[in-house]
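Methods — Computational structure assignment.
A single polypeptide chain was analysed. Its primary sequence is given first, followed by the predicted tertiary structure written as structure tokens.
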Amino acid sequence: MTAVLGNVGSTLRTVRSAVPDWVWALVFLALAIAYPAMVSSDLLDASINSLAYIIMALGLNIVVGFAGLLDLGYVAFFAIGAYVMGWLGSLHFAEVNGGEGIHVLTNKVAENLPGIHLNFVIILIAAAAFTALWGALLGAPTLRLRGDYLAIVTLAFGEIVPRIFENFEGISNGRQGITPVDKISFLPGQTPLAYPLELEPVYYVALVMVLLVLFVNRRLRDSRLGRAWIAVREDEVAASAMGINLVRTKLWAYAIGAALGGFSGAFLATYKNTVNVDQFEFGFSVFILCMVIIGGMGNIWGVVIGAVALSMVDRFLLKELNGIPESIGLDFDVTSVNFGIFGFFLVIMMVLRPEGFLPSGRRRLELHEEAVADDVASAVAAEEVIEVRPKA
């Protein structure tokens, strides 16, 4: 099985290298733009959620894949970003400014409502900045921790934050949550987008957000900071000896990863029209982590594939399997044990293909050093054969 997957991966790499990267980019962009016209509204709704999950998975990939810092509490940043959207784009603080409300570049529906109503772009920036701050605050006390200890601390952070929101009703409205949330608009006085009745405009908003995050991820990966993350991931002691500032490097990883979680959380809050503490369970952190690991830690496109695959499995495939337990005399809903199924997938991947569907070249080299060496030797031998051929 492993050999088959390895051959498939080798074939895909050969096909990919035969076509320039910019051609692939144009093809995928054209397909993404035409996508809403080709699918049903149910699938389009699932795809919008998948785009939001892609942003979160890419954010977690910076922490786990690039910097090698295990984070089991990523749902906390989703929660913080979502609540920023609730605070700055809803009726929650209805008594602010003497009941007149605060309105900044908002749409024509919200401009006469009490509460705080800011422009959607301003809220996205505020959510990313606020969660980045909390990411750095989480990272600061964990700089000396590794492995299991780091996992326990981040897990605790992911559990504490939702409980704080649950019990401080003044900022979260408790278990009732904050609803409704302002809909997306970009220009002052503009009519907001009419989702969920019209999904295409909000799909394109999510697509632009994903493209922006992909661009940022690629630039970060190839930057000096990105190389420092990879050096820290490979060997902290060696990286420190080479002059890399470990504190600053790790804090940037936590802050940027958290910022993307808040960025996506703010979008999901307005798309779902509610912010409720029930959305922020520990299982969601595992769900996003599975996307990163199954897709391929450290590989941007692998993480995208993992996010799309798992979100679609969760939305559609598990529902189709609901009849199986009843047919063998059991009485439970398959969708209720979805996180157990994702954990099973994770174990299978660790046994058959630990580097994920689409691993980064460095991680593939680490786990399959002999196979990569054989590929290199074959390529060198082929070049030698070509060189000794007589010229026509």
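Note: The chain is about 65% helix and 0% strand.
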